[in-house]
Amino acid sequence: MAFVFTLPTPGLNIITEYMMGLIQPGNPISNVCFKVYGYMSMAQAVFFLADFKLGHYMKIPPKSMFLVQLIGTIVAGTTNLAVAWWLLGSIENICHPSLLPANSPWTCPGDRVFFDASVIWGLVGPRRIFGPQGNYGALNWFFLGGAAGPGLVWLLHKAFPGQGWIPLINLPVLLGATATMPPATSLNFVTWIAVGTVFNFFVFRYRKKWWERYNYVLSAALDAGVAFMGVLLYLSLSTENKSVTWWGSGGEHCPLASCPTAKDVRVDGCPHY
User: pLDDT for 14-34, tens place per residue?
Assistant: First the structure.
């Protein structure tokens, strides 16, 4: 599956979980393993291709690019595994939010999403949720709707060729971006949209030469900056049990809300639902 779908790059995340959930229901471990080999390997291949594309724009020789990728993969894989084992053995109650102190950075939101997916698609299984034994079978039609979406955009472009904004609609990108929403906050998407709009719309339109020369270099610099800042923040703050609450990332709630919206929760002066 990873080999066949690498070039068209569809989102195999749910598809692999769905398939293995049908093949082996009630087995979350096999579901996770199938997801790793079917989806994660394809995702890494797509990342490698994106690096090659960036290197092509920056006039880097392909052999040198591949050598750097190979060495980087060995170093990063070994380092990540060693750090993961070290953290699991040295931080008490890691990945257990209910047992950790307030504002602890070791809540592992991405791992919780992975675990929840193994329970939904592996332990419970799609038949009990989206199949004949479940109540959400109608959601399967959205697979067909997602496949037909780009065709509808193409038909609209043919019907209204004078509308230049229609070809800019990229449904795979719009829908695929939602895959990173569970462990992320809205601030992540706001910054992506702001930076992308400035450099790929305004700069591209009004400063084309600057865009051609520096845009992909800027993209690599932003990625490298995130990695360096992650290490710097960990060494300067996390090791000293200190934290910084950034605006827009202080939890998944509305800080301006004064009344609860949950049922059967009564607060003086607030309506009861």
Answer: 889 999 999 998 999 999 999
Q: Give yes or no for a contact between 153 and 166, defined as CB atoms under 8 angstroms apart.
A: yes
CA–CA separation, 7 and 30 (whole Å):
26
pTM of the model: 0.63
160 vs 154: CA distance, rounded Å: 10
- Residues 175, 146: contact at Cβ < 8 Å? yes
Q: Break the chain into its structural domains and give their ranges.
A: 1-135, 185-242
Give the separation between CA 81 and CA 146, rounded to whole angstroms. Answer: 36
Kind and range of the H or E element at 171?
A: helix 171-176
**248-271 b/e (C-beta count within 10 Å ≥ 16 → b):** eeeeeeeeeeeeeeeeeeeeeeee
Per-residue pLDDT reduced to its tens digit, 106-128: 888 778 778 888 898 999 999 98
